Amino acid sequence: MNLKGKSALITGAGSGMGRAMALLFAQQGADIVICDKDLSSAEMVKVQVSGLGARVIAIEADVSNPEQVNVMVKAAFHEFPKIDILVNNAGIGSDLVPFRRMTFEQWDRMIAVHLYGTFNCTRGVIEKMIAQKQGRVINMSSVNGLMGETLAVHYSAAKAAIIGFTKALAKEVAHHGITVNAIAPGVIGTPMIDRLGSQVVDSLIKTIPMRRKGEPEEVAHLAAFLASDHASYITGQVISPNGGSYM
Ligand code: NAP
Q1: How many domains does the chain have?
Q2: Which of 199, 189, 187, 89 is nearest to 147 (CA)?
Q3: Quick one: pLDDT band at residue 88, thresholds 50, 70, 90?
Q4: Is the CB–ligand 1 distance for residue 183 below 6 Å?
Q5: Domain harbouring 36, CATH code
Q6: Which residues make Cβ contacts (< 8 Å) with residue 60, sequence separation at least 6?
Q7: How does pLDDT run across 139-159, given as a tens digit for each residue?
Q8: Domain region containing 97
Q9: Is there an atom of ligand 1 within 6 Å of 193 CB?
């Protein structure tokens, strides 16, 4: 997966799958923009990425905030002449809550981070991708967006909406040489999943045919493929690395 000469902006890259993508993309030759709402974690990943020889910047931004995203995108284009790859990865876990007790605040935050975050960041880079006649947009959905999950109506709805966003935008920009795809992971071993506690995670694992969590690197390899020239005829697709939990 040669990404030499490409620049990738990865949101939520201070942790989990975003971090794994930043490291793998850098190993494959890409320059990296690390965006995270927590600058200290972004800076830590920056040190690791630059150790691989990549050019890298770390920028603090809350993807749900359009002003912060504008500043972040400006800083990215100040450092790099082009952004070839955008990974809309930033996300928050689902605070498990019955729909009847879900507050407007819980609903709004979930939609804001995942759906508005994806909208804000994609709006930030798409004009330049159109001008350069090439680009890759990769959106993080979830297996929950495909099959729904109890106690997570807000998270499932946000992740399902990202699939609609992906397919509609893919149709609209395909003739500009831009592909837009979604990754819909199952249970992946990241801090987001660890926060659920070992009892919940163990019960989730029992429902997975492979009887294990996925590794962040297993998702990063899929993202690197979608970002590479090898995936040039793939657009509007939802690919779900999930150990067989949804098929
Ligand atoms: P993670 O380890 O918690 O990483 C997510 C990163 O995004 C964190 O650094 C987080 O910062 C950051 N972030 C959260 N809200 C943000 C915001 N508003 N603006 C900018 N950055 C923000 O989680 P992960 O498991 O790697 O998740 C990555 C993506 O995959 C998410 O979209 C998630 O919904 C999705 N996903 C995860 C799984 C799974 O099993 N892990 C499965 C399906 C889909 P803080 O740590 O400061 O919050």
Answers
A1: 1
A2: 187
A3: very high
A4: no
A5: 3.40.50.720
A6: 35, 36, 37, 38, 39, 42, 68, 72
A7: 999 999 999 999 999 999 999
A8: 7-188+216-239
A9: yes
